[in-house]
């Protein structure tokens, strides 16, 4: 059961509050950003991808550092959640009218050289909305009504996103909601009921919601070798790229699968495979270690949240990154269906980079009024007293 201790028991850690930026977090992110830029440039020889990505990184970094020094306690207010829900829903609905179709999905607003994917910001909005909702109701989480109400918020976003269709973003939203419900203290009985309902919903989605190419991806996941020249081509080439990297990799610029264009979407969905081919097993271990540091620092900041809202928000951000990482790497290794999910800080794309930096900027701003973390108190909160 997720239980927050009284703020008076901890006191306000003003010293930590002055340390608004977690430099361990920043130092773990920078090599990932560099890896993405180097990999993009190395397998094409074209500077356009890397240059555009660098511009987005610069803009997103500026937003991150600006947020670090703001007082964002207003995010706890109900009106903020209402505004985020209405605005995000409106943008997702507007995609039907003026959205740009790319790779079969109408998920983008295009403004010439600038494109904007509202589903990325909707993911962040959902985390804030759920953190607000559960921050006052986690004690009553045993009441199924709160699961249903929170599920309604997630379902509205999920339904709009998957209808575009954007299966990857819809799955991220679903797992983010599920993760935050579990963190808030859902009972095993309700969890089993949710899994049963989810199974039923998937069957209905298969029959009436999924496009044929999405079904092909799932069929290919079940039987990887069924259609390696068609629906299974991307995943098959990705596995070859990862496996050919060996222990030390082929070297930067010498990845044959990506450089010779056998590996599709090598700057976005399958950039992990391109990286693994060039850097090998050793590079991948370092790669995962950096993500481990990022998740650790996010959770550590979350545990020092001044109120339940900050703790739940930080937990939601950690879930957000874990799910993105797991889904992207999983589809690159062909242990999960291909869903078009970007790899945080590495894949090409400005909207997801901006969303990731905004999420972390808000988390850093919350450090201004965070509390000291006592090991025994944290254990009692999540594990119960010994």
Walk me through the topology:
Layout lengths: L6 H4 L3 H5 L4 H20 L4 H22 L9 H21 L1 E3 L2 E7 L2 E3 L1 H18 L8 H19 L4 H18 L3 H21 L3 H11 L10 H12 L11 H4 L11 H33 L4 H25 L17 H16 L9 H9 L3
Antiparallel strand pairs: 1-2, 2-3
Helix pairs in contact: 3-4, 3-13, 4-15, 5-6, 5-7, 6-7, 6-8, 6-14, 6-15, 7-8, 8-14, 11-13, 13-14, 14-15
In words, what does this structure look like?
- The protein is mostly helical and 386 residues long.
- The protein has one domain (7-383).
- The chain contains 16 helices and three strands.
- The chain has a three-stranded antiparallel β-sheet, covered by helices on one side.
- A hairpin with a 2-residue loop joins strand 2 and strand 3.
- The radius of gyration is 21 Å and the shape is globular.
- The two termini are 15 Å apart.
- Residues 1-18 and 373-386 have low confidence and may be disordered.
Describe the structure concisely for a colleague.
This protein has about 375 residues and is mostly helical. It has 16 helices and three strands.
Structural class from helices and strands? mainly alpha
The first-to-last residue Cα distance is 15 Å
- Number of separate strands: 3
Unreliable spans are 1-18, 373-386
Radius of gyration, taken over Cα atoms and rounded to an integer in Å: 21 Å
Number of domains: 1
- Envelope shape: globular
For the sheet with most strands, the description reads:
3 strands, antiparallel
User: Could you report the average pLDDT, rounded to the nearest whole number?
Assistant: 79
Number of helices: 16
Helix and strand succession? Answer: HHHHHEEEHHHHHHHHHHH
Q: What proportion strand?
A: under 5%
Which percent range fits the helix content? 55-70%
Strand order of the biggest β-sheet: 1-2-3
């Amino acid at each position: 059961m997720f239980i927050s201790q009284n703020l008076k028991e901890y006191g306000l850690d003003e010293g930590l509050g002055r340390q608004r930026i977690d430099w361990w977090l920043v130092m773990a992110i920078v090599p990932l950003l560099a890896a993405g830029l180097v990999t993009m440039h190395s397998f094409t020889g074209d500077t356009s991808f890397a240059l555009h990505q660098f511009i987005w990184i610069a803009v997103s970094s500026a937003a991150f550092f600006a947020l670090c020094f703001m007082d964002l306690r207003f995010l706890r207010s109900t009106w903020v959640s209402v505004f985020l829900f209405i605005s995000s829903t409106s943008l997702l609905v507007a995609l039907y009218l003026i959205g740009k179709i790319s790779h079969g999905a109408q998920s983008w607003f295009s403004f010439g050289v600038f494109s904007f994917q509202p589903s990325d910001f909707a993911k962040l909005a959902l985390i804030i909305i759920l953190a607000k909702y559960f921050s006052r109701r986690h004690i009553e989480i045993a009441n199924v009504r709160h699961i249903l109400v929170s599920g309604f918020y997630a379902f509205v976003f999920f339904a709009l996103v998957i209808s575009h269709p954007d299966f990857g973003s819809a799955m991220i939203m679903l797992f983010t909601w599920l993760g935050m419900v579990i963190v808030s203290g859902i009972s095993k009985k309700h969890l089993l009921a949710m899994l049963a309902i989810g199974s039923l919903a998937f069957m209905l989605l298969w029959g009436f919601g999924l496009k044929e190419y999405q079904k092909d991806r799932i069929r290919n996941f079940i039987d990887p070798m069924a259609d390696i020249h068609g629906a299974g081509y991307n995943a098959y080439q990705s596995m070859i790229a990862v496996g050919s990297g060996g222990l030390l990799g082929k070297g930067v610029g010498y990845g044959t699968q990506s450089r010779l264009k056998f590996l599709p979407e090598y700057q976005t969905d399958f950039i992990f495979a391109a990286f693994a081919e060039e850097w090998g097993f050793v590079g991948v271990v370092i790669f995962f270690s950096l993500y481990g540091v990022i998740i650790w620092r996010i959770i550590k900041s979350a545990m020092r949240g001044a109120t339940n809202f900050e703790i739940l928000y930080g937990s939601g951000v950690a879930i957000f990154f874990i799910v993105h990482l797991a889904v992207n790497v999983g589809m690159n290794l062909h242990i999960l269906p291909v869903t078009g999910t970007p790899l945080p800080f590495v894949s090409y794309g400005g909207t997801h980079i901006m969303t990731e930096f905004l999420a972390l900027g808000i988390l850093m701003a919350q450090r201004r009024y965070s509390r000291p973390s006592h090991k025994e108190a944290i254990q009692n909160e999540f594990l119960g007293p010994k």
